[in-house]
Design the sequence.
């Protein structure tokens, strides 16, 4: 009598092989994505890190024919643009989230969510074109801005990018705030608005902060909305919101298409600064979000 | 209890009620107003963009879509090749990204041990956080030369007999193919993270039942996990497609900005978003500006429809998941 073998043969063997291939495929796909990230970060780091020095951060661009120089105007400009954008998007985003999670009926809340997602899906170049058509091309005599590109216009475009991000992140955290906190507050006779402002919002504060950080990281790297709204700028440090200012992503964009190799160097260095800022702040935000989620989860 | 020790409820209630009613009402109004602003911005975007495109719509009508000339000198504008370029690059990227994203989603939800899932998932989401201008910069100076030296000659010699893979005269780095790769890199994180959520939402009873019946892990995935969220996976891929359709900066950096379009994807090309981005300071006449806005309008309509459809499908699966828990 033949020995009974435990080794898979025939059909079973084929099935196990197919399984093995599928597993290898899935691992390879994930590895490829991480490899691309690694190669990308490494190229930016290895090409950009040489150009970083104090002058790079503190000086304006070099005069024609000279070497050296820095990108201080772009750094200041991006800080200004993102500051304007966040100042506009944060209050509206948080208020929208409060409405959806504390006041609105399920149906209306779903509608608001849907339209925020649609807004999030709009190409950023279209948002740039919208702001261009709204306040750059035409004049807005009442406000006094308009007629021209400005940091205000660019910041407004970035605010539209940030709004759905802040609002969606805040909604998610607010929905994690345990209901028994709200009920405890009501039981003490506290009214709804005070409950929202003094109990719900402070509990969700950490989550709102991380959502805002992610939105800032996204806005800081957006180029397309700035092309038509805030791209024609001088070479000096300028923090006047009614002027058009330099910005990090836009400088990378123009440098990358320029013929001068020293500008390529500058583009890589700026890309390194930008990518370091964006990746570190997203990592930090994710870490904080996990923590506040765990905290809220354990309070439930 | 003596009546005297109890505070007078009526007076207290009245004062509190007035302030609280006002406060509740104010907060409600404020938050509802803010929500309305968000929705109104969507409407305002559509209205202003359509309004800005109006001069070009009046001159070219819908013929804009199938005429093929984008010439500021003769003031004739048409979008045919730009639309084709947009569709080709985005669908190409989608075809490359869809299987990879599904595989990554499966890896993160079914295959990877829990200690690997978190870090790998975070790394892949980091890829989504890389600004498009940085991806584009990398595309020009790292990916495009590599593609021109290695990938494109390989594609050209292996598949050159198919016209869309035919070789150009020389090895150009800025091609439709390079743009496709860049877009693939940009949409994989989006699509794969949605796929992961979908796969995680499949009830584990179903998966365990399949394993219990003797299925291998691959057979379980093939016959239970993927079929039960098929619509959601399609929607995730369409959301990625929507992102690819609208990407302007990274594409304009690597695609070569050239029309009329050639038949081969190993030649330079252009897309709608890329053309708009490329002409940010070159637009002189009002008609040219209006034509660029017309391009943005077409893009807006396409992404609006694809997003709305995909969002609805994804939402349905979210509810299913919440209901199933």
Sequence:
């Amino acid at each position: 009598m033949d020995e009974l073998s435990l080794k898979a043969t025939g059909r079973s063997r084929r099935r196990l092989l197919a399984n093995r291939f599928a597993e290898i495929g899935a691992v390879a796909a994930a590895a490829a994505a991480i490899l691309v990230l690694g190669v990308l970060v490494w190229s930016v780091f290895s090409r950009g890190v040489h150009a970083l020095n104090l002058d790079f951060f503190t000086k304006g661009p070099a005069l024609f024919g000279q070497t050296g120089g820095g990108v201080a105007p772009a750094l200041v400009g991006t800080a200004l643009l993102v500051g304007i954008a966040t100042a506009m998007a944060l209050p509206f985003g948080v208020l929208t989230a409060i409405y959806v999670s504390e006041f609105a009926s399920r149906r209306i809340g779903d509608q608001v969510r849907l339209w925020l997602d649609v807004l999030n899906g709009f190409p950023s170049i279209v948002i740039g074109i919208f702001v261009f058509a709204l306040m750059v091309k035409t004049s807005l005599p009442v406000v006094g801005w308009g007629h021209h590109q400005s940091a205000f216009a660019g910041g407004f475009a970035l605010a539209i990018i940030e709004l759905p991000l802040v609002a969606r992140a805040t909604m998610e955290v607010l929905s994690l705030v345990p209901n028994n906190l709200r009920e405890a507050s009501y039981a003490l006779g506290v009214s709804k608005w005070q409950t929202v402002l003094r109990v719900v919002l402070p509990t969700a504060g950490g989550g709102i902060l991380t959502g805002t950080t992610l939105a800032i990281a996204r806005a800081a790297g957006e180029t397309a909305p700035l092309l038509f709204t805030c791209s024609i700028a001088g070479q000096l440090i300028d923090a006047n919101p009614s002027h058009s200012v330099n910005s990090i992503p836009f400088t990378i964009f123009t440098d990358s298409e320029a013929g001068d190799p020293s500008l390529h160097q500058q583009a890589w260095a700026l890309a390194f600064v930008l990518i370091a800022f964006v990746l570190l702040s997203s990592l930090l935000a994710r870490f904080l979000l996990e923590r506040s989620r765990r905290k809220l989860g354990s309070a439930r | 209890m003596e009546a005297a020790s109890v505070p007078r409820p009526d007076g207290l209630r009245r004062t509190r009620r007035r302030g609280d009613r006002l406060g509740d009402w104010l907060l409600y109004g404020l938050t509802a107003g803010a929500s309305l602003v968000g929705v109104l911005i969507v409407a305002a975007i559509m209205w202003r963009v359509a309004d800005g495109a109006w001069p070009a719509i009046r001159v070219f009508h819908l013929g804009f879509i199938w005429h093929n000339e984008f010439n500021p000198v003769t003031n004739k504008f048409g979008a045919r090749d730009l639309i084709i370029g947009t569709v080709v690059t985005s669908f190409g990227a989608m075809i490359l990204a869809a299987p990879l994203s599904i595989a990554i989603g499966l890896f993160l939800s079914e295959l990877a041990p829990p200690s690997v899932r978190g870090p790998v998932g975070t790394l892949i989401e980091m890829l989504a956080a890389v600004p498009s201008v940085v991806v584009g910069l990398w595309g020009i100076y790292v990916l495009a030369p590599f593609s021109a030296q290695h990938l494109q000659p390989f594609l050209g010699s292996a598949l050159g007999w198919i016209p869309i893979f035919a070789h150009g005269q020389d090895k150009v780095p800025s091609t439709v193919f390079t743009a496709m790769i860049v877009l693939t890199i940009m949409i994989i994180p989006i699509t794969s993270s949605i796929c992961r959520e979908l796969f995680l939402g499949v009830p584990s009873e179903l998966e365990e039942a399949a394993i219990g019946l003797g299925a291998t892990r691959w057979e379980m995935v093939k016959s239970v996990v993927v079929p039960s969220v098929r619509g959601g996976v399609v929607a995730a891929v369409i959301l990625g497609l929507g992102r690819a359709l609208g990407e302007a900066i990274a594409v304009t950096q690597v695609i070569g900005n050239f029309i009329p379009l050639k038949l081969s994807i190993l030649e330079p090309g252009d897309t709608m978003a890329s053309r708009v981005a490329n002409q940010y300071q070159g637009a002189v006449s009002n008609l040219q500006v209006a034509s660029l806005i017309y391009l943005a309008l077409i893009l807006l309509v396409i992404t609006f429809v694809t997003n709305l459809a995909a969002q609805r499908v994804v939402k349905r699966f979210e509810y299913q998941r919440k209901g199933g828990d």
Chain B has two domains: 3-60, 63-324. Chain B has a mean pLDDT of 86. Residues 3-60 of chain B form one domain. The CA atoms of residues 206 and 212 of chain B lie 10 Å apart.
